[in-house]
Amino acid sequence: xxxxxxxxxxxxxxxxxxxxxxxxxxxxxxxxxxxxxxxxxxxxxxxxxxxxxxxxxxxxxxxxxxxxxxxxxxxxxxxxxxxxxxxxxxxxxxxxxxxxxxxxxxx
Length: 107
Fold this sequence. Notes:
Elements: E1 4-5, H1 7-20, E2 25-33, E3 37-45, E4 52-57, E5 60-65, H2 69-72, E6 76-82, E7 85-91, E8 97-98, E9 104-106
Parallel strand pairs: 1-6, 2-5
Antiparallel strand pairs: 2-3, 3-9, 4-5, 6-7, 8-9
């Protein structure tokens, strides 16, 4: 399965990397935090390590540490504009509950 990117998310990743001038993709992970248990993390991926899994769609790469795959496998990453807000959105089938603020989730 892995991580899927919508075309909108891929375009956003590519434009941000181009603006930054370096990087191989978007690094996605999770950490324990928030009101519900886990919180998504995102950063630029400047390299791909041997413990990383790489997923590529629409010309953009998402890099995930293998230790995070059990919480992220099957997730679709989208980029949306809603009014004045522009954000990445995670559609994670493993998330059973999200907190009211939408920042954290439980499995």
